[in-house]
Amino acid sequence: MKSRIHPVSRPVVFRDRAAGTAFLTRSTADSDRRTTWEDGRSYPVIDVETSSASHPFYTGTQQVLDTAGRIERFNRRYGGETSSQGA
């Protein structure tokens, strides 16, 4: 592996503003703003709009689309059966 071509990985706090949660992980991202973590050390903090704490898929609030109804409506509108062409 070549030296000096990979970015520096460091501990960073990602803070989800929507859920009010934060987690410490390693990242190559950096920030001028800093926060003090539970261990008493100061880390760069990056605010994110969504994370697993606030995303509908992970929280179980995701709405399921009625794909069967959408297919039936498409078939009614555009003629139903599709024909396969070719051999």
Automatic annotation (TrEMBL):
The keyword Ribonucleoprotein applies. Transmembrane segments: none annotated. Keywords: Ribonucleoprotein, Ribosomal protein. It holds the Pfam family Ribosomal_L31. The keyword Transferase does not apply. GO terms for cellular component: ribosome. NCBIfam families: L31, PRK01678.1. Part of the 50S ribosomal subunit. Belongs to the bacterial ribosomal protein bL31 family. Type B subfamily. This is Large ribosomal subunit protein bL31B. It comes from Streptomyces castrisilvae.
